[in-house]
Amino acid sequence: MTVSIQMWAVTCALLLAMFVIDFLVVDSKPHAFGPREASRWVIFYIVAALAFGGFIWIHFGQRFGQEFLVGWITEYSLSVDNLFVFIVLMSSFAVPPALKHRVLLIGVAIAIVLRGILILVGAAALHKFEATFFVFGAFLLYTSISIWRSGENEPDPDGNVFVRYVEKVLPVTKDYHDTRIRVTLADKKYFTPLLLVILAVGTTDLLFALDSIPAVFGLTRESYIVFTVNAFALMGLRQLFFMLDGLLSKIIYLSKGLAIILGFIAIKLLLEATHGVFDINTTSITTVQSLLFIALTLALTIFVSLRAVSRNPSLVESSQVTDIEHDAVELRGRALEDIDDVE
What we know:
Layout (H helix, E strand, L loop, with lengths): L4 H22 L8 H26 L1 H17 L1 H13 L7 H29 L3 H19 L10 H9 L12 E4 L2 E4 L1 H25 L5 H21 L10 H25 L8 H25 L8 H11 L13
């Protein structure tokens, strides 16, 4: 698959245009998003991703079209874990409902740029050292086992080290001022918490990319597909945050399903690495087989979860998402406690 610099430039320009339109049209009047409005935008981004996958299929061939499709489904599924982080960060920084969409819009834009850099580094390493696939495979297998055992993420409610550093070196006001990132108070300029939570969302996402990006590289070796898959998954994830509010807690076996998917991709990577490095004939897992396995795993995860909850509604109270939501309530405003009150 040969992608020209011009196509890279056009792709990046189109993605940027989508963000600009979103910012100027959807976020022109900040408001609290409801499930109905979010659903319309989720459908839009799903259709956009499928249309782009169709373009790749027609322009580059069936193989790469299939790789984009399976990669996008996988990345979108793995990115659901990010929603848990968003829930905690939004609460910890006490983000007003009307500003949540803007936080996710700009935060995800930062995340895509950072993921793009990580993808380029990963692609260069894979190109130079094919044994890197062993590292990716082993890491994904370890992550899969860890998720299966614990089934929980522990997001830092204060963001991360970088965000805490920014908070210390920049003057920050404790209160939000509509959509402004910087304000003047008593003839002195201050940044608002809006800057901190945007940086928290954008940079914390990079930690989750450490397993999702190797996972997509396990399905395709094309950096162009890996990048666009990540971009479309993250753009659709923003609206999914609002649409699934209150529903994620019912998918009680989500972590188990994601662990199985990561384990499957890890095995696929290790088999391919064994064949490529040691020239040993191993079982080959095709893109279509990967797609069917991942889609079936997700479908069964949702079906079994909903069936279990329908039989025993009390299971929702012990679910991972419910625990996260409870933590979010308890941590509300925590990230703002250490900020000096300058008003």
